[in-house]
Amino acid sequence: MSDYDRDNIFAKILRGEAPCVKVYEDDDTFAFMDIMPQAEGHVLVIPKTEACDMMDLNEEMTQKLIVTVQKIARAVKSAIGCPGVMLTQLNGAAAGQTVFHTHVHIIPRYDGVDLGIHATDMVDPSELEKLAQKIRMKI
Ligand code: 5GP
């Protein structure tokens, strides 16, 4: 894409130039723990293609992305033991998107518990790693 910034943080994570706590990877998709989770067990799933948002993805990659999202959402639900799982996906700054490599949020939810604030409080990677281990075991 002409407006895709190859130096966005998720592009760097995909190239191994920035750290992340990885949950899952296949030929086309990559999943990792959100560093500023809105709930314990918040995972991000991204395609391994240069796409700012969902509108930039072709049909094949869209299918591959959603199949991975379902796989990881099942693992998150089982590992975290949450009764609900919210999938969110923001397109464009006006929609609240802050990282311009398309991604889907997988966020555990509980009755009566408000959603944490978006991209605010950073969590120690060692804590994320403990959660990632649990999630990986359920994939
Ligand atoms: P968006 O606002 O674009 O929908 O979501 C971007 C998400 O990426 C936010 O939830 C934010 O916490 C997360 N995020 C931002 N920078 C990093 C980072 O360097 N590493 C990880 N793992 N997540 C990040």
Describe this structure in words.
The protein is an alpha+beta fold and about 140 residues long. It has one domain: HIT family, subunit A, CATH 3.30.428.10. It contains three helices and five strands. It has helices at about 10-15, 60-80, 125-135; strands at about 20-25, 30-35, 45, 85-90, 105-110. A five-stranded antiparallel sheet has the order 1-2-3-5-4. Helix 2 crosses helix 3. Bound molecules: guanosine-5'-monophosphate (5GP). Guanosine-5'-monophosphate binds near residues 9, 33, 34, 90 and 97.
Q: What is the third-level CATH name, the topology?
A: HIT family, subunit A
Globular, elongated, flat, extended or rod-shaped: what is the shape? globular
Low-confidence stretches: none
CATH architectural group? 2-Layer Sandwich
Q: What integer is the average pLDDT? A: 96
Cofactors and ligands: guanosine-5'-monophosphate
Instruction: Summarize the main sheet.
Output: 5 strands, antiparallel
CATH class: Alpha Beta
Strand-residue proportion: 15-25%
Topology order in helix (H) and strand (E) letters: HEEEHEEH
Q: How many helices does DSSP assign?
A: 3
Biggest sheet, strands in spatial order? 1-2-3-5-4
Based on secondary structure, the structural category is alpha+beta
Relative helix content: 25-40%
SS elements, strand count:
5
- Looking at how many chains there are and whether they match, the oligomeric state comes to single chain
What Rg do the Cα atoms give?
14 Å
Kindly report how far apart the N and C termini lie.
32 Å
- The CATH homologous superfamily is termed HIT-like
